[in-house]
Specification:
The protein starts with a strand and ends with a helix. The strands form three sheets. Strands 1-2-3-4-7-10-11-14 form an eight-stranded parallel beta barrel, surrounded by five helices. The protein has a four-stranded antiparallel beta sheet with strand order 5-6-13-12, covered by helices on one side. It has a two-stranded antiparallel sheet with strand order 8-9. It has 317 residues and is of the alpha/beta class. The chain has ten helices and 14 strands. α3 crosses α4. It is 37% helix and 20% strand. It has a single domain, classed as Divalent-metal-dependent TIM barrel enzymes (TIM Barrel, Alpha-Beta Barrel), CATH 3.20.20.150.
Length: 317
């Protein structure tokens, strides 16, 4: 496994903490301000050099920039222009040594939580979701529309992903509900994921295996990991309690997933890919910046993940 962590595009405390914990490879979020041109090789190079100068090698972009992806998922009038820009971006990413893009197909709402400060161990707080508390707007997209939009995108993008050596890693819907406020969600089961990555038969189309999402789907990791083993490009190592209609996130060692067993499953199935801790609690004395992505909780999470990896590989060549 290659340990990575999630970084915003300008230095902050998460950079310092990850480096202090021994993380040297970055899953990076590209800038989202008007000054950044997503098609500019020079702009991308500047961002990548910022990481390299701090000792972080960028290897994954997550997410596909929303300025493009929102139109692609909705299938609106700007879709084709945005796909063309993404193709240019893939070429530029490959030139920078970045060969994986984590993308999702959650239209309109993205990953969704109804609470950001649920109590966790020792006074820490976590995010959670309760369908009964979700307040939708009037946007409507059907399952048929969403599948057509997804198929249109991957059929257009994957040939260029192959040409440039970029892997497209599909993240499941979070939460994995069939419908969220009138907007259909299509990647809510293992079978749906299999269908999605079979639209185009390509070694460059696979998955980001967010294990907590599969747990919330009701899938067994003992089934899902072997089924997708050759298509897992990236892992989100996260834990949860509850089900897809009502759940909360947890410390990595305090949820319903047996994390050590999950790591053994990856290794037994030959899954040796970049991995990151994903969401973490906000610590009791921490001022929350972005719930799930606050800095101090990463100290425990990264250390825990390193220990799980080392424990699973101890004594093995």
């Amino acid at each position: 496994m290659l340990l990575t962590d999630y970084f915003r595009s300008t230095p902050d405390l998460t950079w310092d903490i990850a480096l202090s914990c021994g993380v040297t490879h970055g899953t990076i979020r590209l800038p989202e301000d008007d000054a950044f041109d997503v098609t500019s090789a020079a702009h991308l190079h500047t961002v990548c050099e910022r990481f390299r100068e701090r000792g972080i090698t960028p290897i994954i972009v997550e997410p596909l920039p929303n300025e493009l992806h929102d139109h692609i998922k909705a299938g609106d009038a700007m879709r084709d222009e945005c796909i063309e820009k993404f193709i240019i971006l893939m070429k530029n990413l490959a030139a920078e040594g970045i060969h994986t893009v984590c993308f999702n197909f959650m239209a309109h709402y993205g990953w969704t939580r109804t609470a950001k400060n649920l109590p966790e161990r020792g006074g820490a707080s976590v995010t959670g979701f309760d369908l009964a508390e979700f307040l939708p707007d009037e946007t409507v997209l059907t399952h048929d529309q969403m599948w057509k939009n997804y198929e249109y995108f991957v059929k257009a993008a994957v040939p260029y992903a192959e040409q440039y050596g970029v892997k497209l890693a599909l993240h499941p819907d979070d939460p994995p509900l069939a419908n969220l406020g009138g907007v259909a969600r299509i990647f809510t089961s293992l079978d749906a994921i299999k269908r999605g990555i079979s639209v185009v038969d390509s070694p460059n189309l696979g998955v980001t295996f967010c294990q907590a999402c599969y747990r919330l789907m009701g899938e067994r990791l003992e089934d899902a990991i072997p089924a997708l083993r050759d298509k897992i490009f990236f892992i989100h190592f996260r834990n949860v309690c509850g089900d897809k209609t009502c759940f909360r996130e947890t410390f990595h060692d305090n949820g319903e997933i047996d994390m050590a067993a999950a790591m053994r499953l990856y290794m037994e199935n030959g899954v040796d890919v970049p991995i990151r801790v994903d969401h973490v609690p906000t610590m009791p004395w921490e001022q929350s910046d972005v719930a799930g992505y606050d800095a101090i909780g990463r100290l425990f999470a990264i250390g825990y993940l390193k220990g799980i990896i080392e424990g699973a590989t101890y004594g093995n060549p």
